[in-house]
Amino acid sequence: MKLKQIIFIVSSVILTFLLINCGDESNDAVKNKSNTPKIKTTPTINYIYVNSFPHDRNSFTEGFLIHDGELYESTGATAELPQTKSLFGIVDSATGLIDTKVELDRETYFGEGITFLNDKVYQLTYQAKIGFIYDATTFKELGKFNLPSNEGWGMTTDGKCLIMSDGTSTIYYLEPENLGVLKTILVSDNGRFVGNLNELEYIKGFIYANVFMTNTIVKIDPTNGKVVGKLDLNMLANEARHINPYSMEMNGIAYDPINDRVFVTGKMWPKYFEIKFSL
Questions:
Q1: For position 10, what pLDDT does the model report?
Q2: How do residues 107-128 score in pLDDT, each as one tens digit?
Q3: Rounded CA gap, 199 and 114, in Å?
Q4: Which long-range contacts (CB under 8 A, 24 or more apart) does 263-268 make?
Q5: CB of 253 closer than 8 Å to CB of 201
Q6: Which residues of 161-172 are buried (b: 16+ CB within 10 A; e: fewer)?
Q7: Which residue from 86, 117, 126, 272 could staple onto 77, CB 3.0 to 4.6 Å apart?
């Protein structure tokens, strides 16, 4: 056999071997790619800007809700901002100012979320481990209750229970008469706990929660604690900061069930906004 023939045969064998191995690696790559688990993402809830209204720039917003057609806001008082107060009352849509119904001693209490249920108003405080109960018409204090956690943050109701947050991933359901804990749910997003849950609003079977230090609202399924949607409201926060550079993170969701309207705002924001999205 001539040398050229030998070289040709050896080259053919090597080439065939390489092609077979390359084919196997290619198939393995396809298999590995097909077996790679897909990363789940929580759906983004798109919203439409509807309108805006003035909001008191000194309001350190902690609670936001609509009761009997009136928009109520509760605020906290922090030592770093001497103009802030711990109070709640009705917001004037023309001026944004709050017609105060109750004001707490800012040296003793930092006001947090509020909600109405069974002709009463329930108000949380931050670290005093105490909540207040008022008559929903006269706003006369009816009593106090002990919080089930070290801190009080947001509050809402499903019409049967009081629902509160404490700045963690836990949401508490309280019995409205004795204020005992009926149950708790842990909020998670694709298997990871979501902490810093702040102001709450119960809308059509879901809990909507502001996430502290962000401009995000998460939509929570209360049956299992899973986050099923997210609202990114950075655009509204940027508009607020453009008008008032001292505006902080958003914290406030109010739902009008009669007219099916949603309003949002934030701490020290110069405006509150009406937005529309699929509820």
A1: 39
A2: 999 999 999 999 999 999 999 9
A3: 9
A4: 263/64, 263/66, 263/71, 264/64, 264/217, 264/233, 264/236, 265/55, 265/61, 265/64, 265/73, 266/61, 266/215, 266/237, 266/240, 267/59, 267/60, 267/61, 268/57, 268/58, 268/59, 268/60, 268/61, 268/244
A5: yes
A6: bbbbbbbbbbbb
A7: 86
